[in-house]
Amino acid sequence: MSDTRSPQVLPTRKPTQHLERYSEADVPTARGVLKTIVFRDKRNGKEHVALVVGEPQGLEGVPVRIHSECLTSEVFGSLKCDCREQLDRALDFVSQNGLGVVLYLRQEGRGIGLGNKIKAYALQSKGLDTYEANRQLGFADDLRSYDIAAEMLRSLDVRSVDLITNNPLKIAGLVEEGVAVRRRIPSRTEHNPHNVDYLKTKRERTGHLIELFAEDDDTEAKAG
User: Fold this and answer.
1) Which helix (H) or strand (E) holds 202?
2) Pairing of strands 47-53, 19-29
3) What residues are labeled active site?
4) Cα separation, 32 vs 148, whole angstroms
5) pLDDT band at 167 (very low <50, low <70, confident <90, very high)
6) What is the pTM of this model?
7) Spatial separation of the C-alpha atoms in residues 80 and 193, rounded to whole Å
8) Strand 100-105 vs strand 62-68: parallel, antiparallel, or unpaired?
């Protein structure tokens, strides 16, 4: 069941102007044609991608997924997280609904980069959880920011979003950047023996709204 409550947080930051709308084309995929728009960050040259279905310009309640790059899962098929499944589910959702945007941000490993992510994996194999490993490497729990996502949505003239996420920090981050979040659409995926502890840790340590087992659905039904 979708959470229809919008966060009551006023925007506190001025709109950023870090991006250049660099290139775009219609790309045929197994899900249909995706309008693919590449934004280049003027500060560091990083390229972020908006995958657009339909015509979201000027609309309220556009389904949007903000997705951070995960090479290990999406390309190599790692089972240590559910990133590939979340990306697939989001693309399926917007394609089947004929409207929506998936923002693909180059923020590997919650912002620490691929090399440090693999270092963190090595520490996790010794018993640390994902957050403890990041801290031992000298990083905060999550270095991602959402000013880039907000700027991309403004460029696309999306007025408000129905955000596909389990992460309350993404909701707060968008609202803080001046993007109205109308409601949350849960991002449900299947867990496996390699990522279940990771998902539990995200739920318990940072408040991710993750439903892992049948009793989670029962609890939500009783509460709502």
Assistant:
1) helix 196-206
2) unpaired
3) 142, 144
4) 26
5) confident
6) 0.78
7) 9
8) parallel
